[in-house]
Amino acid sequence: GFASEAYDVAVIGGGPGGYVAAIKSAQLGLKTVCVEKRGALGGTCLNVGCIPSKALLNISHKYHEMLHDYAKMGISFDNPAFDVAKMMAQKEKSVKGLTGGIEFLFKRNKVDYIKGWGKLTGPTEVSVDLNEGGSKQLSAKNIIIATGSDPAPMPGGSLVADEKTILTSTGAIALEDVPKKMVVVGGGYIGLELGSVWGRLGAEIEVVEFTDKIAGTLDGEVGKAFQKTLEKQGMKFHLGTKVVGAEVHANGATVITEPAKGGAQSKIECDKILLSVGRVPFTEGLGLEQLGVTKDKMGRVDVDPHTFQVPNFPSLRAIGDVIVGPMLAHKAEEEGIAAVELIAGQGAGHVNYNAIPGVVYTHPEVAGVGLTEEQCKEQKIAYKKGSFPFAANSRARTNDDSEGLVKVITEAESDKVIGAHMIGPNAGELIAEMVLAIEYGAASEDVARTCHAHPTLSEAVKEACMAAHGKPIHF
Ligand code: FAD
C-alpha cells in the first residue's frame, strides 16, 4: 500500500477535548494531526451543544426581558415581534465564526487537519476514510481518542427521536417555529436550558423527570430554589414520573406517563417532545473492538485515571466525554492538555476533579463547584457554610435582578473552601473565583479579606465567604 504519514500525536475527534489537545501538542513541539469527520471543528460543543444553546438563551432572554421587564424601567415600544429564522441565523453566525476560528488556530499552530472518519488499525495506526472520498493512512507514536458523545436514547426505547416531533437537543436548537407546547423528557441541564429558550418565546413547557428532583447533581438547597424560580417563570414539573411511551400524530404527540413507583397512567398532549435523558459515549466505527480496547458498562473507554492511557495500550489515550467523569467541555479541555503534557514529558499532567465547575445557563444562572452539603454529610466531613442572598447585594438590586443566593462550604477546622453553589445573575462567571479558591487551597477568610469592586455581583461571593467563618456586613 501507500506509505503512511508519520506523526508524534494523532488526535481522533475535533471537539473541545481533541482540538485543545491538538493545539497544545503542536505548541509543545510535537508533530500533530487531528482527524474530524463532522466537516467542522469544535465538536458537539461548538456545533450542536454549548455554543448554539447559549446563543439561543441570550436572544430569548433579551426578548423575554423586553416583554416583561422593560416597561417598568420606562422603556416602551410598539408591536414587539419575534423572528425565529433570524434568531437561528444569528446562532449560525456565532457557530461559524467560532469553528472557523479553531481552523485558523490549527493553521497558526501547524496542526494538520484531516476531514474524515478515523479508525484505529493498530496501537499506532489510524486509517481515515476521507470525507472527500478515498482514504489515508497515518502512523503516530501517540493516539488520543476524543470522539465525544451522542444524545442518549430513551431507556427501554419507549420514545425514538425523529427530529420532527420527538427531538434531541440537536433538533431543539434548530426549530423553525415556536412550539405551542413542549414536553421535556429529563430534567437535566440540557432540557432545562432548551426548555427555557422555547418557554421564553411563548411555548408552554412541561418537564417530566424520573427522579424526585431536577438537575440532580446540584446542591439540594440551590436545586430547590432553582425549581421554584423555573416554576415562577411558568415551567411545569412532573417529578418522580416516567414516560412510558408516546403516540405521534399529524400535529403533535400524546406523551404517556406513569408514576416512577408505578400506578395509573396520565397523558400529556403537546406538539413537540424534547428527549434529554443524558448523553452516551460515541465510539462507533472506531475499531476499538477489533483492537481489544475495553469499555465500562456505560460504554466509556477504560483509561488509567492519571495518565489517560488505555490499559495494555501505552500509545493510546482517551479524554473528554468518551471517558468517565462529568460530560463538560472544560473537563474535556483540561484532560486534553494534561494528556498531551504527559506525552511530551512536561508538566504535572494533572486534572483536579474537585475543581470542575458546572453551570446551568438559565436566568438566573446556576453554578456549583466542589462538594455539596449532601456530599459533605455522606462523606462525614465536618463543614461550615455561609450564604448570602443577592437581594442584599447592591448591584443585583440596582439591576433589579436580585433573585438567588451564594453559598460557600468550608472544611470546619481549616476554613478551606471545599464547595460553592449559587443561583443568581451571572453565577456562571462568579463561580470562577470559587474554583480558583479551591484550586489554590484558599480559606473563606482569604476570599473575604480580598478587596472586591463595589458595586459588583462579586461582592455577594465575598460576603458569603464572610458568613462562612464570621458575619457578613450587609445581611
Ligand atoms: P465532542 O465535542 O463530542 O467532540 C467529539 C468529536 O469527535 C465530534 O465532532 C465527532 O464528530 C468526532 N468524531 C467522533 N468519532 C470520530 C471518528 N471516528 N473519526 C473522526 N471524528 C470523530 N458543556 C459545557 O461545558 N458547557 C455547556 O454549556 C454545554 N452545553 C451543552 C448543550 C448541549 C445542547 C449539549 C448537547 C452539550 C452541551 N455541553 C456543554 C457538553 C459538551 O458539548 C461536551 O461535554 C463536549 O463537547 C465534549 O467534548 P469532547 O471533545 O469530549 O467531544
TrEMBL record:
One of its GO terms (biological process) is 2-oxoglutarate metabolic process. Residues 356-464 form the Pyridine nucleotide-disulphide oxidoreductase dimerisation domain. It is an enzyme of class 1 (oxidoreductase). Signal peptide: none annotated. Keywords: Disulfide bond, FAD, Flavoprotein, NAD, Nucleotide-binding, Oxidoreductase, Redox-active center. GO terms for cellular component: mitochondrion; oxoglutarate dehydrogenase complex. Binds 1 FAD per subunit. The keyword Flavoprotein applies. Its cofactor is FAD. The active site is at H454. It comes from the Eukaryota. GO terms for molecular function: dihydrolipoyl dehydrogenase (NADH) activity; flavin adenine dinucleotide binding. Belongs to the class-I pyridine nucleotide-disulfide oxidoreductase family. PANTHER family: DIHYDROLIPOYL DEHYDROGENASE 1, MITOCHONDRIAL (PTHR22912:SF223), DISULFIDE OXIDOREDUCTASE (PTHR22912). This is Dihydrolipoyl dehydrogenase. The lineage of its organism: Eukaryota, Sar, Alveolata, Colpodellida, Vitrellaceae.
